[in-house]
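Design request, tokens follow.
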């Protein structure tokens, strides 16, 4: 089949079935140890690791290969302080006014509240912005496709890369999140999607004693 645009040969080496099964099982065992962590150490993380996990997220597929994402990596202490204060202001309103009783009851087993010290303690909070549209070199708008889906996939790959690197994170989505765009002075085409504090867990970190659904609960086979 002829292609209207340049293509190159796929770099792919097929492995035998037994090795594939082993690799898939090992990766599952690794990822099954992943937990959302709310108690962080302030121990520094080499910036090279952060670069590598961001590059991994950037390999995600996207609509028409537009790659509609920006990863804002924050290390500046003053910026982290401002983000925590703004997030807690929104979260306090949410916990006291916006959330329904059912929502609060569902959150109770996780032990969450409006206070978010991890935003200031974790060495590298990462704000993922979705780009509603692109901007070319001449300043013209360029359409992006399946933005939420594309950025969601990239965030999933970022979380996997964080865990694979021996770090921990938490998906934090204060609502609304417009303060992140203002504090970080991002352009009009960018909208905050999720905030991920990244670092090592505190030595006394705990996590909720909860279970994941079994494969029979999450998979339908035809």
């Amino acid at each position: 089949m002829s292609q209207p645009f340049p293509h190159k040969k796929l770099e792919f080496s097929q492995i035998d079935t037994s090795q594939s099964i082993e690799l898939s099982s090992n990766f599952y065992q690794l990822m099954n140890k992943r937990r959302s962590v709310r108690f962080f150490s302030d121990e520094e993380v080499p910036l090279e690791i952060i670069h590598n996990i961001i590059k991994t997220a950037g390999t995600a597929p996207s609509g028409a290969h537009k790659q509609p994402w920006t990863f804002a990596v924050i290390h500046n202490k003053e910026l982290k302080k401002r983000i925590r204060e703004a997030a807690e202001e929104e979260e306090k309103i949410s916990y006291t006014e916006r959330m329904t009783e059912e929502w609060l009851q569902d959150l109770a087993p996780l032990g969450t509240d409006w206070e978010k010290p991890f935003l200031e303690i974790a060495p590298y909070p990462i704000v993922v912005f979705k780009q509603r549209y692109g901007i070319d070199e001449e300043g013209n708008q360029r359409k992006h496709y399946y933005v939420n889906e594309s950025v969601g996939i990239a965030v999933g790959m970022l979380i996997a890369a964080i865990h694979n690197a021996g770090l921990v994170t938490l998906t934090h989505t204060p609502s609304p999140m417009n303060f992140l765009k203002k504090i970080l002075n991002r352009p009009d085409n960018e909208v905050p999607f999720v905030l991920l504090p990244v670092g090592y867990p505190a030595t006394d970190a705990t996590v909720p004693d909860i279970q994941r659904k079994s494969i029979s609960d999450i998979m339908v086979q035809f």
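Comment from the thread starter after seeing the answer: thanks! The chain has one domain: 37-202.
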